[in-house]
Amino acid sequence: MYLSTIGRPKTADGPPTAEGGRSDRQRRRRLALVSGNVVALGTVSLITDVSAEMVSAVLPLYLVLGLQLSPLAYGMIDGIYTGATAVLRIVGGYLADRVRARKLMAGIGYALSAVAKLGLLVAGRSMGAIGFVIAVDRMGKGIRTAPRDALITASSPPEALGRAFGVHRTMDAIGAFLGPLVALAVLAAAGQSYDAVFVASFCLATLAVVVLVLFVRDHPGSAPERALPVPVPDRALPVPRREPVSVREALTLLRARPVRRLTAAAGLLGLATIGDGFVYLLLQRREELSVVWFPLLAVGTSLGYLLLAAPLGMLADRFGRLPVMVGGYVALTVTYLLLFGPIGGWPLLGLALALYGLFYAATDGILMALAGPVLPERLRATGIALIQTGQALAYLVSSVLFGLAWQQWGPAVASRLAAACVAVAVVATGCLLATEPALSRRRVTS
């Protein structure tokens, strides 16, 4: 039947050919769903986040109440928790582009984080050892994040990137939602033994690496379907080899104005953002919550995140990614103001955690969806890593400064200063990105 379509051109005013109709149907199908590779990567992130949140949900309470750290000391540890990823994000992204093995680099990062969970068993109460183990865990995250996001971008059409990242971040948030609950269950079953939490966390992190190895493809678009049979010559023509990505070529990314502006905006927004642990500690102190309920604060944020990530991703694809991301930071500003605002009790906890989940859902994947289309495919992992590095370095500074402000002027003044900084950063981000056509257009078309 297909022989009747050979040689039949598609004209501008005539009906589409069978091949054109098939192409349109395939395009609509791609837009309606996300690829299996995105789902597989989402599964890896889900399991990894269960593992990570088992530890991070109880870590702030353990450090501040258990080890009696000052706000400044906790700010330094919290900054390490994210800032340690900064340089390695670029290294991981560059190596993934250079060796064309994004899956391998992501796997190395996930494996490092898994091994770090065992390190917590021997760290004990030593702050130096705890800081080192946390740094190794975050190094693993730094190595894997850019190659993983580059794989998501390569597995999705440009006009559906918001949806793809939204689905991935939703699965990621499901893991973050389940992690504290699993930690509480393990603690209850093991007689409040933190070692049992660390061992269970390691086992889950190892499972995530196995899922990555078995189900994620490194080159999801390398084998396109053929609509018609093509004769194969007796001797295949030589395929030109692509030169590896060089450091000089990677540095050319900063010559592109959209990349420079995105990197600057990510740095500004990171500088205005304080860590989750600070937010939860402030809520715990304001409402005098029992330590038993503390891990459930992260559960509330994750619930809002997982419910909103995919819908906001689709909303961003339809109406514009920049407005959705700016709206997320407006929600963050309100969250900081609520920490010492007029509302108290359960209404405060519910509203603050819902807005905090909205902030993550509207910003985390959307920033990467903004970056993907303006980065060349050959340097995509490096470009994503560059933007994430700017944000991570700024976050390291903000954690230390917020801890210092808390220690000097008290938590109420520190939280209001943080809200003011976010408001300023949002205005600056709008000025940087809204005037860039490649970043501010309402929709991305193929």
UniProtKB/TrEMBL annotation:
Q: Is this entry keyworded Transmembrane? A: yes
An annotated Gene Ontology molecular function: transmembrane transporter activity
The subcellular location is: Cell membrane
Query: According to Swiss-Prot or TrEMBL, what is its membrane topology?
Result: Multi-pass membrane protein
A cellular-component GO term for this protein:
plasma membrane
Gene3D superfamilies attached here?
Answer: MFS general substrate transporter like domains
Key words, A-Z: Membrane, Transmembrane, Transmembrane helix
Q: Which residues form the Major facilitator superfamily (MFS) profile domain?
A: 37-437
Official protein name in the record: Sugar phosphate permease
Q: Which organism is it from?
A: Micromonospora pisi
